[in-house]
Amino acid sequence: MRKHLFEIIVALMLFAITTVFMLCNFFFFNNRADITVAIVIFALLSLGGIVFHTAKHMVSKELEAKERLKRLADSINAAVIVWDADFRYKYINFEFTRMYGYNEEDINSGDDILHKVLPEDAFMPSLQAIINNRDEEFRVTAKNGNSVATVWNTSIMEIIEKRDSKLYLLMSIGYDLSELLSTKQELEESEKKYALSMELSEIGILLLTPGEDTFYISEQLRNMVSFPEGPIGIKEIGDSVHHKSLPEFEKITAYVKGFRRTDIGKIQSSKIQCKSLDGSYKWFEFRYRLITSPLTDKFGLGGSVIDITRDIEKDIRIEKMAYIDETTGLFNRNRFMQIGRDAFEYTRDSNVDYWIIIADIDNFHIVNDTTGYENGNKLLQRMASIVTSQVVNGGYVARIGGDNFALLVQDNGNDNLPVSIINTIQTELREIKSETFKAQTITCSAGYCKMSDSAIDFSKVLDQAEFSLSLSDGSRESVIRYDNKVHERVLRDAETEKEIAEAIANNEFVLFYQPKISLTDGTLMGMEALIRWIKPDGRLVPPVQFIPIAEKSMNITQISNFVLNEACRQNKEWQDKGLQPLTVSVNLTSVDFYQTDVISNIKTVLETTGLDPEYLDIELTESLALKDIDNAVSQMEEIRNLGVKLSMDDFGTGYSSLSYIQVLPISLLKLDRSFIMYLEKDEMSKEIVSAVIRIAKCKRIETIAEGVENVEQAAILRGSGCDYVQGYLFGKPMPADKFEEFIRTHNAALAEQMVTDSAEHTAAV
Ligand code: C2E
Ligand code: MG
Ligand code: MG
C-alpha cells in the first residue's frame, strides 16, 4: 500500500489542481463550461487510471503469492491443502490427489472438501486442532472409500493485505501414517512375541547400555532373581549373589570393569547362585558379552540368565552316584583317578610328591562266604574308617574296587611312610573285636609306589601300585614297593606265556636227547629227553627261559604231556628199529605231580605208545618232594608200582637233608652240576659227592652225575663209586636223528678207556 502512496498523492494533487482550476475558471473567467468539463474529465481520468493501476498491481501480487504457494505445496512429499482463514479451499497439491484420489475438479465441484474427507464426528475437533496448529491424527476417507490414517500439521503460510483486512493463507500438510502404523503394529507384535518367548523359555535379560550405570532388567529376570526396587547397578546385582558364588561374580565384574575392545563379540558364561524371589538360593547360568555404542566409545553389557538349579542338582546327584562308593561313602575309582591326575600334574610343577598305596583285605572272600555279604560290607566300612584315619594333611582315600582301598599320601621324605601306614592299618585290623569276625584274623596286604617314579601319567602310577599289590599275594612280604625290573620281567613272562600257548598249537616244541653213560663199562644206559622250543625263525629257546613260566600257568601240563608222549613214542620207535633198549628220562614238575592225575597220564602214555614201563624214568626235583612229603611218597610209590623208574634230579640244590633219600622211593640220584663243576679242583665238592654216593649206595640207590665236562671229573666220580655220568664229555643234548646215530655209533670200550686212562693219570698226579 505504501508503494502506491506516491501515485495516489499525485493523483489527488492533480485532482485538487484540476478542481481549483475549474473553480477559478468558473468564478473568474465567466464560467467557461466547456473548458471546465474538459478539465474535470481529465482529472477524473487521471484519478481512475491511478486507481486502476493500483488495483491491477494488487491483484497480480496475490496471484503471484498463490503461485508461489502452489509451487511450494507441489514440492512437498505429503498431502497439502492450502486454504484461507475461513477454511475455504484454495489449493490441493498433487500428493493430496495421489493419497486420497480427489483432484482439482472434485474440489472445484463446490463440495466442501473438509466434509468430504473428515469423518462427521471428528469434523469440529479436527478443525479446532488444525487451527491450533497441533499435530492431529485422523483418518481421511479417500475417494475410493478407503480410510487413510493421516497426521496433519497446519501453519500460516502467507498474509496478504487486502485493503483494510489481512488474508491468511493456511497450509495443512498431511502425512500418510499407514506404513508407519503397520510397522508399529509389526513392532508391537514382534515385541509381544519376544516377551512371550522370553517368558516361555524362562530367559531373563539384562542390559547395560553403553555409558550408563544401571542395568535394564527384563520382567522375566525380575521374576527369577530377587533384585531391589528401582534402578539396579552392579552392586545391587552383587547383593543377591550367594557368598559362595562371589568369586565367580568377581570375575564378571572384573570383566565388565576392564572392558577391552578385543573382548567384544566373545560370549562369556558363568554359573552363579543367586537369591530367588522365594528367598531360596538358586543356580543361574549367566551368558554375557560386551556391547559397544556406534556413537560413543563406551562399552556396555548384554546378557541372558537361565535358571539351571535343576540341572545343577541333577549334576550333583549324578556326580555323587558317579564318584562316591555307596557302601563306604569313600570316593570311588573314578574320583580317585581325577584326584590322582590333578596330584600328578601338581608333582610335575612342584617339589611335592605323593605315595600311592593300595591296600587289600586278605582273603576277603572268606569273610564274605563265612559271615555273609552284609558282614562283608561291615568289614569294608570298618576298613574304610581305619584307612581314612591314617590319611591326614591333604591325603585322599578311595575304595577303588572290591576290597581294594587306595590312599594318596603326601611324601614327607621318609621312604618308610607307606610301610608304617600299612603296619598301623594291619595292627588295627587285627584288633577288631567283633563277634562276627573273631573266627578269623583280619589282615591286609599292600602295594605302593611313588608318584614321581612314573613319568607317564597317573593311570600308570595306579597300575604300578596295583601290580605291587598283586605280587604281595604269593609273597612272604605283605607290603611291596613297586620295582620296575620286576614289573618288566612279569610283563615279559606274560608275553612268553601267550607265545607258549601259540607254540603248543603250532607244534614248535621238539625233544633233544642227552646220553647217560655207565662209568663201569662205558655203555650207553639211557638218555634224558630235554625239550627245545624252535621258533618259526629257527631260533632255539632253551627250557630255562620258558619252563618256569609255563609252570606258573597251566601250559606246563600240555608241555609235559607232549614230552611224555614223544619221549616214550621215540624210545619205542628206536627199540622197534632194533636198537639196544634204553631208558628214557622225562622231567616232570610239581604242577604235573600235584595238579594233574600224573599216574593215569603215565599209564595212558605207556599204553598208547606200547613202551615197556621199565624203559621210562621220571625225574623229579627234591623241592617237589619236599612240598608235601607224604603225598609225594604215596604218588611216587604208585609210579614205581607201574614199573616206571624214579630219579631225584638236581640233588643238592634244595634244602633237603640226606635223610629224605631214605623215605623217597627213588632208584637214581642225580648229583647236581654245581657239585661237579669244580670237582677236580675243589676238595670240599669231592668229599660231599663221595659222601652222598656212599649214603645212596647204602640205600641201594644208584647215582648219576650231571654236567660232566671233562675226563678228570669222570675219573673222580668213578673213583667215588658213582654209577653213571651225563655231560658234554660224552654227548650234548641232540635231536632225535642225531641221537639215533649216537646210539648206533657209541663205542662203549672207547668211553670206558677214556675214563680209565684219565683215572690212572689222575692217580699218578
Ligand atoms: P635238568 O633236568 O637238570 O637237565 C640237565 C641240564 O643240564 C640240561 O639243560 C642239559 O643240557 C644241561 N647239561 C647237561 N650236561 C651238561 C654239561 O656238561 N655242561 C653244562 N653246562 N650243561 C649240561 P637244558 O636242556 O637246558 O635243561 C635245563 C633244565 O630245564 C633241565 O634241567 C630241566 O630242569 C628243565 N627241562 C628240560 N627239559 C624239560 C622238560 O621236557 N620238561 C620239564 N619239566 N623240564 C625240562
Ligand atoms: Mg633233568
Ligand atoms: Mg638236573
Number of DSSP strand runs: 25
Mean pLDDT: 84
Tell me the radius of gyration: 62 Å
CATH topology of the largest domain: TIM Barrel
Q: How many discrete structural domains? A: 5
Q: Which blocks of ≥5 consecutive residues have pLDDT under 50?
A: none
Helix content: 40-55%
The N- to C-terminal Cα distance equals 174 Å
CATH class of the largest domain, anyone? Alpha Beta
What small molecules accompany the polymer chains? ligand C2E, magnesium ion
Q: So what's the overall shape?
A: rod-shaped
User: Can you identify the CATH superfamily of the largest domain?
Assistant: EAL domain
What is the count of DSSP helices, taking H or I runs of 4+ residues? 29
CATH architecture of the largest domain: Alpha-Beta Barrel
Q: Given the helix and strand composition, which structural class is it?
A: alpha+beta
Which strands sit side by side, in order, in the main sheet? 16-17-19-20-21-22-23-24
The biggest beta sheet is recorded as:
8 strands, mixed, barrel
User: What percent of residues are in strands?
Assistant: 15-25%
Oligomer: single chain
